[in-house]
Design goal:
There is one protein chain. This protein is α+β, with helices and mostly antiparallel strands. Helices cover about 50% and strands about 20% of the residues. The protein has a five-stranded antiparallel beta sheet. It has a three-stranded antiparallel beta sheet with strand order 8-10-9, covered by helices on one side.
Length: about 325
C-alpha cells in the first residue's frame, strides 16, 4: 500500500512539474496576464512546482522508508522513521522556499541567519535536539530497552527529536520493579548532563540479581548454600548458561577482565545475630521480580523441610 502511494505521489509530482514548465511557455494563455503584482503564468508555475516538491518528497519518503524497513527490526525502524522525517522535512522547507522565491542562495543565507538567532532564543529545545543526535550516534539506549535516566526508570517507548517517552517502572507509587502505569516524558537534553543506566547494556539483555536469606549461626552453611544453588539452577539455570556465554563474548571485545562464573553462586556475610546468605544469579530485567519471588518461595520451602540443618535467627530485630 505504501509503495503504491509512493509511486502515485512521484507520478503526480512529475505531472505537476511538467504542467509548471508548460504554463511559462508562450503557447499557454489563461485569463488575465497579471494577477495582482505578479504575472499569472509565473504565479501558477510557482504553485505547480511547489506542489511537485511536496508530492515528490512525500513519494520518495514513502519509497525510501519502505525499502529500508524491509529487513529492519522494530527498534531500527523507529530510528529510521525519525531520521528520514528530519532529512526530508529539512529538504522540503529549503526546496519550497527556493521554488516560491527563486532565490536559492538567499534562502540558504536567510536560514543561516534565522538559525543563528534561534540558537539563542531556543536553547533548551536545541539541546534536546543535540541530545537526540547523540542518542542516535552513540546508542546509550534505544526503543524497547529498560533504562534509568536521572531519577526516571522504565522501558523506552519512543525516542523523538526532543523527548524520550518512558513507561515507568517502580517510582513513587510502588516499590517493586513492576510497571506503575505512568508514562514519563524526559527531555533528550538530560542525556547530555545526567548519567544513563541501561539495564541491557554491554551487549547482554541480562543483569545480575541477588536475594538474601538470614540464617542462624547453627545452620549448616554448606547444606544451605547447596540448597540455594540447586533451586536457582532449577529456575534460571538453562537461561543463565546461554546468557553467560553471550556475556563472555561481549566481555572479550573489551579491555575489561572479569571472572564470570557459569552458574549461581552464594556469598556469605556475617552479621551480629545471624549469617546472611546472598544468592547471585542472572535474570532478565523485566522478569527480576517474578524470579526473585519464585526463588524466595522455593528456598524457604526447602529450608523448612530441612530444619535439622538450616534454622532461622530467633531474634525478630532484622
Amino acid at each position: 500500500m505504501n509503495r503504491a502511494a509512493g509511486w502515485l505521489s512521484v507520478f503526480t509530482a512529475i505531472c505537476l512539474a511538467a504542467a509548471g514548465a508548460l504554463v511559462t511557455t508562450p503557447l499557454f494563455t489563461l485569463g488575465p496576464e497579471m494577477l495582482g503584482p505578479l504575472p499569472t503564468a509565473d504565479l501558477l508555475s510557482k504553485l505547480l512546482f511547489a506542489g511537485a516538491v511536496v508530492f515528490g518528497l512525500s513519494g520518495l519518503h514513502l519509497l525510501v522508508l519502505q525499502f529500508l524497513l524491509r529487513t529492519a527490526t522494530k527498534r531500527r525502524a523507529h530510528d529510521l522513521r525519525n531520521i528520514l522525517r528530519l532529512v526530508f522535512g529539512a529538504v522540503g522547507v529549503v526546496a519550497l522556499l527556493g521554488v516560491l522565491t527563486d532565490q536559492w542562495l538567499g534562502v540558504l543565507l536567510s536560514l543561516g541567519v534565522v538559525g543563528f538567532a534561534i540558537t539563542f532564543a531556543l536553547q533548551q529545545p536545541l539541546l534536546s535536539l543535540l541530545g537526540w543526535l547523540y542518542i542516535m550516534a552513540k546508542r546509550p539506549y534505544s526503543v524497547g530497552e529498560r533504562v534509568r535516566i536521572g531519577e526516571t526508570k522504565g522501558d523506552v517507548i519512543k525516542v523523538d527529536f526532543l523527548v524520550t517517552t518512558i513507561w515507568e517502572v517502580g517510582g513513587e507509587l510502588i516499590s517493586t520493579n513492576q510497571p506503575s502505569g505512568r508514562v514519563v516524558t524526559v527531555p533528550n537534553s538530560v542525556v547530555l548532563s545526567s548519567e544513563v543506566t541501561n539495564f541491557g547494556g554491554g551487549g547482554s539483555e541480562y543483569v545480575w540479581n541477588e536475594i538474601s536469606m538470614q540464617v542462624s549461626y547453627e545452620t549448616d552453611l554448606d547444606a544451605a548454600t547447596e540448597i540455594m544453588i540447586e533451586e536457582a539452577e532449577a529456575v534460571v539455570g538453562a537461561e543463565m548458561a546461554d546468557s553467560i556465554a553471550d556475556f563472555r563474548e561481549r566481555l572479550a571485545e573489551t579491555p575489561v577482565e572479569l571472572e564470570v562464573t557459569d552458574g549461581p553462586t552464594v556469598n556469605v556475610t556475617q552479621a551480629e545475630s545471624w549469617v546472611e546468605l546472598r544468592l547471585r544469579y542472572i535474570a532478565h530485567p523485566r522478569q527480576g521480580t517474578r524470579v526473585k519471588n519464585e526463588l524466595y518461595e522455593r528456598v524457604l520451602e526447602r529450608f523448612n523441610e530441612n530444619a535439622t540443618v538450616t534454622s532461622f535467627p530467633v531474634s525478630r530485630n532484622r
